[in-house]
Amino acid sequence: MLRAEQRTTSWKLIGPGIVVAATGVGAGDMVASLVAGERFGYALLWAVLVGCLVKVALAEATGRWHLATEQTIFDGWRSLGGWTFVFFGPYIVLWGFVYGASAMSAAALPLAALFPSVPLSVFAVLAGLTGLVFVWFNQYAVFEKVVTVLVGVMFVTVVGLAVYLVPDLGALAAGLVPSNPDGSLFNTLGLIGGVGGTITMACYGFWVNAKGWRNATWITMMRLDNRVAYITTGVFVVAMLIVGAELLGAGQVALAEGSKGLVSLADVLEERFGRFVSVVFLIGFFAAAYTSIIGVWHGVSLMFADFVGNIRGRANRPVEERETSVEFRAYLLWLTFPPMLLLAVGKPIQLVIAYGVLGSAFMPFLAFTLMWLLNSKRTPPQWRNGAVSNAGLALAGGLFLLLCGQEVLSRIGAI
Fold it and tell me: pLDDT category, 4, cuts 50, 70, 90?
């Protein structure tokens, strides 16, 4: 394909990037940003921006592979050898089992705070079931519209709250200069590594294809879509950092651990500004958590369907066929029902350790295999990596290796 054949870009076509960014930004990212703001003010703002650039590089590389080669990422991985599938198979099965429980719990927390008379487990089960039903009976076009509406809700509520708090613009500008306050290393790495990115980064190419972008003529449009998405994500995460700095840091308020910290924040908001502001924030919190449910239910199920299709010799099926395939729906059920057992009995420590180690290894795996594929003859010459793409993927891979090492050490310490 020649670059001259590129289609005209249009803001009206933006969508897959919003989906991948919104799916990747969940309750964990919100808490990480709040905690960073609470502890270090605006000093780590630069890390948010670096995180966005890293994710732009990863998502662009994933989308470019799908469009330039007209193959999926699994076709590329298969060409690198069977070891890629040996790694990915156990990972996607274990990841889905544990993530399903975490995602349902996160979406249930704001609802339980709004309606305390209803048990948390009821809302968690309802979140999973509604996600299952929605994805089962709708294909990509409807899915994208719903995610976009939820993104609008989470963006308006959280960014509106940050503006309402009137941030210190001077301190905000100073935070653009890289610094590393004492005790901030893990928070810095977490901000860079956690700005909207998990296995869902690899889903981007599938969502690009589902949008109808199937070949290299769409690469320019894909790049616009990707950049707009992560600019939006960056603004959202910066808004959470502002809330942490202005509301929690200034008032010396410590958050509860994990996603429950967001419920603690809602209590602080109610005390400071009244019930209305607290309710609005909880609605935004739910929107962020629920996009992660339906995004993963759809995107990772598409990946699983293609993974199994490659093993069975049925690669490169149309996205519309994958969305109704047995493999797609089997993984939907796997994400929904087995994790409900974990909601009831808790997560066995051995399972949590294996999940953490495999999960932290996926992002460097994605970054370095994309570098390999996009610098090889598998990619048409005009769409191979340039210096900027290689630098971005190398930075991403190196960063995620550090995070992987940190995760492995922390898991070993938990034994």
Answer: very low
For 229-273, write each residue's pLDDT tens digit.
Answer: 888 888 888 998 998 888 877 656 666 655 667 778 888 889 889
Q: Is the pTM of this model over 0.85?
A: yes
Determine the Cα–Cα distance for residues 109 and 391; give it in Å rounded to an integer.
39
6: confidence class by pLDDT, cuts 50, 70, 90: low
Mean pLDDT over the full length of the chain: 87
Please state the rounded mean pLDDT for residues 396-402.
84
Structural domains in the chain, CATH included, are 3-414 (1.20.1740.10)
- Rounded to whole angstroms, the Cα distance separating 317 from 278 reads 46
